[in-house]
Amino acid sequence: MRKFRPASALFVLLLFLLSGSCQRGTTLVQTEAAAVTTLVAAENMDEYDVVWYTTSSVQAASRPIFVDPNRPAVALTFDDGPSKYTARICSILREYGGKATFCVIGNRLQDYTSYAKAAYDLGFEIVGHSWDHKNLSTLADYQIEEELNRTQNEIRTVLGANPKFFRPPYGAFNQSVKNVSEASGLAILMWSVDSRDWASKDVDAIYSKIMNNVQDGSIILCHDIYESTADAMARVIPALVEAGYQLVTVSELLTIADKSVVAGKNYNHGRYTATTSADETYDGE
Ligand SMILES: [Zn+2]
Question: 5-55, pLDDT tens digit by residue?
């Protein structure tokens, strides 16, 4: 009879742990397969996007995403979509095991439902960016309320999500916006690194702006409505991963920074005090 060996017990334990992680992996793959099917079925998607998305995301599906609270992390955020570039940005993120937060305009959700649904199903975070991109700081309270609630309702209806944040257009908010957002149960999402992609529309400039300013805890502002931004992400995302950053959603970033999300408060970074202040007179798109 063979003697009990600690090494055998370790082997059995490893097998047990592996079988557990395989099951989780299978669930993830199934969810992703469903999301990819949704994307392929999108009527307003061109062939290039379909090919790009299906190949890279299916390959990436075997790699589950875990967030390690002890490693540096940043949150990429994309405003003004969804658009036809959203899927491509999602697929680059998935290829490198990353996630992001999309700040969508309420009245665009009907036209790009499949893109938003696929992004949400893949684990990306979706929050509102107003109904029609009005400067909320110029509106009366009831109008601010309508902008926030209409968008929030649309996100609930289309995606089944219930975001805790919204991003004000132009990053513009005043005390009225804070009061209404508090009453609506929403926190204000700002940023600490501005890619200024809307201004430059240039891959090199977007890359430099992000890579020269990023640090652990950064919330990075981009827009998923420009081809140049999607092109830049093909360089920025691998570079951030190479530099050791985990690419997480805003909610994940604040969770690992031990920050609770409070309605009416504004957040522009995760772990550290940001050196770049959010610009309240932001003149972007
Ligand atoms: Zn915007």
Answer: 444 444 444 443 444 433 333 333 334 444 444 444 443 444 334 433 444
Respond yes or no: is residue 79 known to be catalytic: yes
Residue 75 pairs with which residues in a beta bridge?
219
Domain limits of the chain?
7-267
**Ligand 1 center to residue 192 CA distance, Å?**
15
Classify domain 7-267 at the CATH superfamily level.
Glycoside hydrolase/deacetylase (3.20.20.370)
Q: pTM for this one? A: 0.77
Q: How far is the CA of 150 from the centre of ligand 1 (A)?
A: 17
CA 23 – ligand 1 centroid, Å: 40
Residue 255 CA to ligand 1 center (angstroms) comes to: 25
Cα–Cα dist 40/98, whole Å: 21
Which is catalytic among the residues 129, 133, 223, 269?
Answer: 223
